[in-house]
Prior knowledge:
Elements: H1 6-14, E1 22-24, E2 31-40, E3 43-50, E4 54-61, E5 68-69, H2 72-82, H3 91-95, E6 99-100, E7 107-108, H4 111-122, E8 124-125, E9 130-131, H5 135-142, H6 145-148, E10 153-154, E11 161-162, H7 165-173, H8 184-193, E12 220-221, E13 226-228, E14 235-236, H9 239-246, E15 256-257, E16 266-267, H10 270-278, H11 287-297, H12 300-305
Antiparallel strand pairs: 1-2, 2-3, 3-4, 4-5, 6-7, 8-9, 10-11, 12-13, 13-14, 15-16
Helix pairs in contact: 7-10
Amino acid sequence: DEPKPSIISDIAHRYHSPPASQLFFHRSDELSRILLVPRQRHVEYLVVVTRDSIAVYNYWECNTCNRGFGSEHAVQQHMDALGHWGYEHTPQYYSRPSYECNDCNDWYSDEQDFHDHQAEKHNYCGPCDRYFNNQNNIRQHLNSRVHRSTGDIQCPFCKQTSNTATGLIHHLERGACPNAPLDRDKLYQAVRARDPNGVICKKLLQWHASPTYTATNRTYNEHIDAYECYLFHRAFSSLSGLNQHLNSPVHQQKLYHCPNRRCGREYTTLAAVINHLESESCGYMRFKAVQKNVGQILDPRRMLSL
Length: 306
């Protein structure tokens, strides 16, 4: 005999959320299986197969708990009673911003997620309305000053602003902040004291403050008519220019490394590490995360005490 419509509610009550499109039951010899055939969101066809017949019924699903019902009225009563209408049926859902990708018709409720999708999947920069040939080209574009210049990274000591975290740390490492007695060596001491596990600082058995080099007139090379660095063989038009080069990070010990173990690049300054992370070249951290977390490294109270 053809199954009675009442059997639907019994099936729906016992099997709230079928994990597949076809389920088998052994509850009764008369009912061998049911199939859920998608029709539209939250509404499906319930196909009841017995030994002698096949019957098709409408099948309504709760928006929240996925419980099935044999009529639209029944599922509405259930959702009214338990407040299961779900977020998609609230005023907040309909008033929320939404963004549709014109290339693949995917929808996003978050603007940044939308732009990330366009860049990663379609090599497209939405704010600039530009397509790029490959991922490398668009990554270079997104890492350029057009997108990376925030302009609101403030020095915690003198309130001078920098475009990026790299600019701020470079400002401190070269001793340019009038309100903080910091330079490359003192900043390294402060960071090292807060990094006992060597996440970003190299684990050096011994470390001494950077030495000061002073070149003399004997570094003048008559063949090139310039003052020459004997290590890098770079020429300088003045003795002061050579001395500035000798005391730059180029001639100093590498104190930092990338925190990504798969990368391991080493750097002489903290600004160089931060610049590496901002570039996202090794994928360890996103640019925005670097800008957000730089304040934890440069806490004025801890820095001054150290």
